[in-house]
């Protein structure tokens, strides 16, 4: 079973994402900030990470920079999921090591399409 880590300071976003991901047979863990996410990755590196940008303690970009430097940290497919929609933020996330980028609010079709694109789900992109 593939594993997924949902990193967002909003419990509501984590719950919604968890339901979608579990519906696609992922085992899902959650973290409310970047520090907790790094701890989770040190314990068990996930196959995929859904990552918010604006969080306390360590934001999504800082988390991603540290993740990619860790042993095994290049492996997870990281999908940024944020309300920051300008081209500069998208470019910065992708150049830092994100595999894809989706805007909040998102729905099941959008998330599924991105997971297919990064190779975490089988199927054809919509």
Automatic annotation (TrEMBL):
The keyword Cell membrane does not apply. It comes from the Bacteria. GO terms for biological process: phosphorelay signal transduction system. Keywords: Phosphoprotein, Two-component regulatory system. Pfam families: Response_reg. The modification 4-aspartylphosphate is found at residue 52. SUPFAM superfamilies: CheY-like. Residues 3-119 form the Response regulatory domain. This is Response regulator. It comes from Ancylobacter dichloromethanicus. The lineage of its organism: Bacteria, Pseudomonadati, Pseudomonadota, Alphaproteobacteria, Hyphomicrobiales. The gene is cheY.
